[in-house]
Predict the structure.
Amino acid sequence: MLAPVHSLVALAFIVAAAGSVASVSLSESRDFTPIAVSDAWVQPPTVRGLVLGLSTPAAVVWTDLVNVIAEGGDLEQVSGSCVGCADAGAHSTQQITGDGYFEFTIASSANHFVYAGLNTDASASTSATMPFALEISGFYVSVREQGVYKSDTSFVAGDVFRVSVESGTVKYYKNSNLFYTSLATPTYPLVADVSMQSVGSLLWGGKIATSDAVAVPSAPVIASFTASPSSITAGQSTRLSWNVTGATSLSVNQGVGMVTGATGETVFPTSTTAYTLTATNAAGATTAATVTVSVAPIEVPPATSVCNTAVPRGQFAGCYYNNKDFTAFKFSRTDSYPLSFDWGKRSPAGSMGSDTFSVRWTGQFEFDAGEYTFASVVDDGLRLYVDDTLIIDKWSNTPGTYSVDLEIAAGWHTIRMDYYEQRGYAKAGLSWSKTSTPVFPVPIISSFT
């Protein structure tokens, strides 16, 4: 692997080689004129020094990525332990078993340390063990073989460099001009190898051509892409989940963005929405899958000055207000037990603001005698009452989960939860569970005559 390049440094390697079909040795001439065809450098057949019989140059397909991400032939270092630490890089899946080439273009003169070249054992490579490498540092490109300096040349943005294997000899080119011929004999197979040594280092447009077929992986496979639940009411959330293999990057539309490395994402659609997951591999092949989330609008009755005070049994009457102090009433509705709402950064209804709203839930529920644990999760504040007795008081911006144990007599009891949202994420939930049953003393018959 190799050492890094600064942001906006584009690199692309090539190793050129004589093929089995009528080839002309590059040693015959120090000059050749590449022409751009389909974004790949291809020599016209009239130019002396052309190596014939090679495959069409293809984007490097990177593998064994460490602290880097790949897109097509590009690499970017996204993490690492320090500047100068050779702890990031990748190598090609394609192999050179005879003649071939690997090419790069330097698109910026601002560089850190990047080593790029040909290697026989990429799994154990460092910048010091690569047999045929170019070190890009400052304003110079140096030839390094097994870490030993051999030659160098200056560069400016736009210069094209190539490492080429020709009839068993490794040669280094700058802008089609040979500037160093190696005395070392290559050992096959060779792979394109990159070692980066600074976060933000870039290698762009890595290309490779060989005298053999180029291995190109199949498109990524999306085994599943689901939404659970697939039907919600406005203000609720759903979880997108996926199972993907063979991809180096993942993205979801509708404003979700890049989700590489994740297996799911929670979304809050306000209307029926089709989400498309796109998986891309290092060769640029893509696969897409789409799932649709149906969103039902909240039925909002006309606003009145007061909330319906009728208290239902076995469920809650929810009174929704467009401020924090239960005065700007918007609508009421019946909400089921247990309460479980996660509005994200939205409001319960389009007619309400996403911040500074409040809700009062009231309902009657039948209990057996015993001790119960009441638990509530909120963001931001709540008060919880049982038969008008305050049992949880967190009427402040203190998001969290709160619980209390309470002895309850058998029968129907009124449960009321007051909630408000200040700003940001909005969440409200309430449930209870029985933790013990009261033990009554067994009657004692002291005498019976």
